[in-house]
Task: structure prediction
Amino acid sequence: MLSVGVNGYGTIGKRVADAVRVQPDMTVRGVAKTSPGHVADHATSIGYPLYAVSEDEIASFEAAGLDVAGTIRELVAKSDVIVDATPGGIGEQNHTLYEQLETPAVFQGAETPAVAETSFNARANYDEARDASYVRVVSCNTTGLSRLLAPLKEAYGIDAVRATLIRRGGDPDQPSRGPINDILPDPVTVPSHHGPDVRTIFPSLSIDTMGVTVPATLMHLHGVNVTLESTPDIEAVRDLLAKEPRIFVVPESARIEGCGALREFARDAGRPRGDIWENCIWDESISVSGSEFYCFQAIHQEADVVPENVDALRAMFNLKDAAESIATTDERLGVSFRQHSRASEQVFTERACDD
Amino acid sequence: MLSVGVNGYGTIGKRVADAVRVQPDMTVRGVAKTSPGHVADHATSIGYPLYAVSEDEIASFEAAGLDVAGTIRELVAKSDVIVDATPGGIGEQNHTLYEQLETPAVFQGAETPAVAETSFNARANYDEARDASYVRVVSCNTTGLSRLLAPLKEAYGIDAVRATLIRRGGDPDQPSRGPINDILPDPVTVPSHHGPDVRTIFPSLSIDTMGVTVPATLMHLHGVNVTLESTPDIEAVRDLLAKEPRIFVVPESARIEGCGALREFARDAGRPRGDIWENCIWDESISVSGSEFYCFQAIHQEADVVPENVDALRAMFNLKDAAESIATTDERLGVSFRQHSRASEQVFTERACDD
Result:
């Protein structure tokens, strides 16, 4: 059993811990957090040993009635590997500690690519993380784009990608973020940094991205155009995407109009925290004109990188090959929406939520 | 003096009436409204003769203390021309009345193109409306795209346009519209109807558009990609756009981050209702890579078609040529932001609103 320490138990860290916990070949050694509060209470209630980020903070955890198993240094020393889910830029600072204690680590996409030997997406470049000590799971948006582009590239070749990323302003637990009633070019410069980040996965890809931020918290929405190297049949493209393990082709019959209905659908399905690990591509949006492909996809920013973190751990330790790892992660986590997408549309009709 | 009746005195109608009123060659014959309320009060306070859409409603206006000059039929009969600013689809129904009374009319972009002899954008196809009896001013989004594409097409040629339109959910006075905290593919099918609407102005243009609706009320935001037929110099493109009468190239020094700051800038400038008649293109977003052009532009959905309605009237009655009409409309209305955009950036530094 791979013993995994989670450093940073926030939005991503708590989800990765829960995903690791249900896998057959890994276990949560402990989780490290900076301060007490309901999230730390929850970690303790699950039974995760709780570590403090510094000695100075142990007293505040104890004052809150929480047992502290030690400091982050002890967790790093005891773990086979660390998943660093600290805020962007902190992971890079933590790198020194991981190296000192010779503990491999997985970083998140908010870190600079240079923090790791390779950037990672399970579908696109699993094997590049094999035997690596430091791996960076790309951001939610880059993960979403990589999952879409990998099958298109393999099947048809890609000449150019143009994507507009309409980004949520903040997560539901980030009340200090905006915008309110505004639409922001973000960044205002074109192309945005997202395109270069996708090139950490597909080095020679021609991709331009534009970023926009809006007053919403639930998911990101991508408007994607891909100029393919060949001219596909639209039904073949649909089938190609519907077969992908982490793509949910949202059928028209589901009557899912936007991100809110997608999240409600996930809550109805009993998903933990209402999470959607899959890219959600509206079937009606899939469009082919000559060699031009278009679609809309929604990306749950809190969730889509979670299965990728699990797969990154397996790649680094050579526990399984890509297909086996993805299948195991998804089966244990419950990534299942795609199985309904073409076969049993009746299910969706019954679940329609707003008519 | 051209005598102009305005049928439908709502968001667009009241603005068009105010714009007509300040022109040297036209006057407001009267405005027609379906029901009393603060907007009708305001029309009366300005001195616009108020007409009721039907006999049945005259009593309700009188009960509200408003003098009614007659019904819409009388206004149509007395006017040289009608600007129909009724809700989408009603204009088409009104067409019969205008024909019966042999009164030419300008329709708005929510009507089907077939309602008129030509669709209209002053910058792109003014001459096609000369001597026409029925003209359709295209929608706010199509107007915004046409103003941007016309100079690019003339200077460089256009191979293909791909635009993502991030649309406001409703205007500030439409509280029943959504979405709240959601991002909607709208329409979910690709391409959206906006591309074909742009082709009512540029018939052979290759353009694909994607529509998205978000929880905002202030402006639309367009992420635009144009594949040009030649390879321009970026400074030349900037200068080309900055010279356009109804394009405001937003300088970096203005520190205008989004639509809210743009509207605040317009309010500081004393614009009526805080209106922005111009396309607002962020200077930093203008990007050229080979023959690929990118930019972000914000479009004030309540305002950008207003000067176009005035120009449509002049074209139909052969009062001026395109350049003269645009110059007159803009001078009388106060369309002036572009004059600051390159020459006097200091103005913007002093006006910065959020630091």
In short: Residues 42 and 69 of chain A are 15 Å apart (CA to CA). The first helix of chain A runs from residue 11 to 21.
